[in-house]
Amino acid sequence: MFSAIQIDKNDSGQTVGLTQLDESALPEGDVLIDVAYSTLNYKDGLAITGKSPVVRKFPMVPGIDLVGTVRASDHADWKAGDSVILNGWGVGEVHWGGLAQVAKLKGDWLVPLPAAFTPQQAMAIGTAGYTAALCVDALVSAGVSPEQGEVLVTGATGGVGSVAVALLKALGFTVAGSTGKASEGEYLKQLGADSVIDRADLSEPGRPLAKERWAGVVDSVGSHTLANACAATRYGGAVAACGLAQGADFPATVMPFILRGVRLLGVDSVMAPKPVRLKAWDRVARDLDPAKLGVIAQEIPLSEAIGAAAELINGKIRGRVIVDVNR
Prior knowledge:
Layout: E1 2-10, E2 13-21, E3 31-40, H1 42-49, E4 65-73, E5 83-87, E6 102-105, E7 110-112, H2 119-141, E8 150-153, H3 159-170, E9 175-179, H4 185-191, E10 195-198, E11 214-219, H5 223-231, E12 233-241, H6 255-259, E13 263-266, H7 274-287, H8 290-296, E14 297-301, H9 305-313, E15 320-324
Parallel strand pairs: 8-9, 8-11, 9-10, 11-12, 12-13, 14-15
Antiparallel strand pairs: 1-2, 3-4, 3-6, 3-15, 4-5, 5-7
Helix pairs in contact: 1-9, 2-3, 2-7
């Protein structure tokens, strides 16, 4: 038996609770993992609260992230005792995830725990930090460089935004962080933000083209925020879009793209192939100061994850949440 958060659905709606499950109920997979830590991401918050139909198969153990030790493996790449990380691949949506003491997964989904990080640090990064690295990789690959000007990070106090600010600063960029929390300016400056702007400046309908300001953008917000970020991106700049905290709509025009050559780069973390994942984790291991993780992350026990998920969705949590599944 093992402890897990389980989401189920009946005629009255969705139910969620901390429960004990038998290992015989674990889904199909070729690697059995003793989980050390998981995390709470925005998608986990949506799944646990039922605010969005993230879960597509019931009953479900949520948690799109985990780090742990292989107990048994039928996969050629992994053996007992290996330390591994899981991010995405539909885990927590269609396959039982990381908010549990035990997981059974496909070995093709796993990557090794980088030597630079402890298990706790790996989950302080988690899918959010790995996604931030994917966004930074996308901007760098598109030719965005520090001498071209400021880079904007929207949703900067969230998980993706927090790590993106720290990574971009480590690469020498001048970073502006957008947030609706005026009290978090000092937090963002600790991470490396050179300036902090009010998200209200971006979150309402704006002009098709605004004054050129941003050489690049990391956006986890979507909707009007993404449209306004594109409208203010400089000629030849690039915008990496990875989230929809404000909304999935994109109320924009083609003008930034056809008049300024702005490039909109879609960033997917869920189904990214293994080489892309390894490159992103290499960037985090190389460029992220581990000391920043102490500023970004907080740790809670599994028993508090359900309540914390609601706080996350309501915008009451900044940075990252590590979940110790064994307490």
